[in-house]
Amino acid sequence: MSCHEFCSFLYGLSRRKPVEPEGEVSSFRRCLTTLDLVALGVGSTLGAGVYVLSGEVARTLSGPSIIVSFFIAATASIFAGLCYAEFGSRVPKTGSAYLYSYVTVGEVWAFITGWNVLLSYVIGASSVATAWSGTFDDLVGNAMAKYLSKHAAMGLPGLAAYPDFFAFGLIMILTGEEVKNPQRSIPMAIVAALFICFLAYFGVSAALTLLMPYYLLNIHSPLPVAFSYIGWSAAKYAVAVGSLCALTASLLGAMFPMPRVLFAMARDGLMFKPLVIVSSRHSPVVATLASGTVAAIMALLFDLKALVDMMSIGTLFAYTLVALCILILRYQGSTSDEQNLHFHTRSKFGFLKPPSYPTKETQKTVAICTAFAVVLVLVLCLLLSKAIHFLVQRRIWSILCVSVILLLLLLTVLIVWRQPQNPWKAPFMVPFLPLLPVVSTFINIYLMVQLGRDTWIRYAVWMAVGLLIYFGYGVRHSVQKQRLLASQGKTENLEPKGENGGANAEKEGASGR
C-alpha cells in the first residue's frame, strides 16, 4: 500500500454522513407520541437495577449510602440525556448515538459508538432476563438454582455458576424514527423519563435500607425478602409479582431499540446486509432475531454482576462520545459557502481572538482542545482513582499534579468557550456549553475507571470483534463511501465534456470567422 493510498484510507475513516442522505428512505412508521416515549424510557430503565441490583449494591458495596450512589449515577445520566436530547432534536433518525457520531465525527467513531450502544442494549436485555429468572426462582424456593447447580454446574472463571436456561428461553420468546414529532417529543421524553426513574431508584433504595439491615439484603430478590423480613409475608408475593411485571416491561423496552441500532448500521453498510430486511409490519425482523440470540446467549452464560458491569462500560463510553460530539457539532460552521463569504486573517494566537462566525480554523481549534481535554480528564480520573490515598494524606506531589491538570483543563474549556458557535438554533440545545459536556465526560470516564479488570478484558474482546467486522466488512461496503465515489465519478465525467465543449466552441468560432 502506497503512502497516498494509506492517507486516503485514513481519510475515509473520518467520512461523515449527511443528515438527509440522498436515496435513503425510512421504512418505519411514525406512530410514537411523547407519552409513548416516556413509557418506553421508564419501562426499559426501571429493570434489574431497581428491583435486583439495588439490594446487591447496598449489601456488598455501598450500604445505606446507595442513595448517594444513585444520585451520582442520575447526574451522569441527566448530563448525557441533555446531550442526547439536543441530538435527537437535530437528527431525528433511527440509530441513536451511532447516527449522531456518524453525522459529527466520522465513520470509524460512529461504528465504535454503535458497537458500544449495541453492547449496552444486548447486555441490558440479558441482565433483565437474568433478574427475571432470579426473582421467579425465589418465588418457587430456588428450585431452578438448586437443580442446575447440581446437574449443570459450569465452574469456569468469568462465567455464571450454572447456565440460566430460563433467562435464555425468555429472551428468545420475546424476541427512534417511529416518533411522530421527534424534534419536540424526544427531548421532552428524555427529561421526563430520567426524572421519573431517578425518583423510583431513590425511593426503592431508601426503602430497602430502612426495611432491614443492608448486610442482610438478598442479592437475587431484595424487595420480596425485605417485606418478608418485617413480617409482611403476603406482601412478599405481591411485590414479587409486581417485580416480574416490571421486569417484563423493562425487557421489552430493552429489546425495542436494540435491533433498530443494528438496522441503522446495516443500512449504512457497516454491518451485514441481511440485517436491513423489514417485515410486512415495518419491523427489522432479522436484526431482532440476531440481537435477541446474542442477548440470550449472554444471559445463558454470564452472571448478573458481570452482565451489568459490561453494560455499564458500553453505556458510559457511548455517553462520553455523545457529549464530545455535542462540543464538535455546536462549533461547526453551517456551510463552506457561508464561510467563503467572509475574509479572515490567520495569526499565531488567533484562537484567543477568533472571528464572530465559525471557520475551519475555529473548528480545528475546538477539535484539538476537545482531544486535549479528554486526555486531561483521563489522567485526572486515573489519579483520583489510583492515588486517592496520597491525596487524602496531602502528599505535595499528588496535590500539585491534580492542581496543574485542573488548571490546564480550565484553560482548555475557556479557549473552547471563546470560539464562535453555529448560529443555527435547534428546538432544544444543551445549556452551559462547553462546561456541561466536559463535566459529563469527567463523570463518565471516572465511573469507567472504577470497573474491574475482568470487565475491561470482556470489553476488549467485544471491541476486537467489532473492529474485525468493521475493517473486514464495513470499510468495503460503506454506503457513504459508495456515495462519495459516485459523486466523484460524476464530477470526473463532467470535466471532459466541458473541455470538449470548449474545444468545439473554439472550432465553431474559427469557422465562423
Describe what this molecule looks like in 3D.
The protein has three domains: 27-331 and 442-477, Up-down Bundle (Amino acid/polyamine transporter I), CATH 1.20.1740.10; 333-420, no CATH class; 482-513. 73% of the residues lie in helices and 0% in strands. The model is unreliable at 336-343 and 497-513 (pLDDT under 50). It has 513 residues and is an all-alpha fold. It has 21 helices and no strands.
Q: Compute the average pLDDT.
A: 81
- Give the CATH superfamily of the largest domain: Amino acid/polyamine transporter I
Low-confidence stretches: 336-343, 497-513
Shape: globular
Number of E-type strands = 0
CATH class of the largest domain: Mainly Alpha
Helical stretch count? 21
Main beta-sheet annotation: none
Write the layout of secondary structure elements.
Blueprint: H1 3-13, H2 34-45, H3 48-62, H4 66-90, H5 96-104, H6 107-139, H7 143-151, H8 165-174, H9 182-211, H10 222-229, H11 233-255, H12 258-267, H13 285-301, H14 304-330, H15 336-340, H16 360-386, H17 388-392, H18 396-418, H19 435-449, H20 453-477, H21 479-512
Helix pairs in contact: 2-9, 2-11, 3-9, 4-9, 4-14, 4-19, 5-6, 5-14, 6-8, 6-11, 6-12, 6-13, 6-14, 6-20, 8-13, 10-11, 12-13, 14-19, 14-20, 16-18, 16-19
Keywords:
mainly alpha, Amino acid/polyamine transporter I, 21 helices, single chain, disordered C terminus, globular, 513 residues
How would you summarize what this structure contains?
The protein is mainly α. The protein is built from 21 helices and no strands.
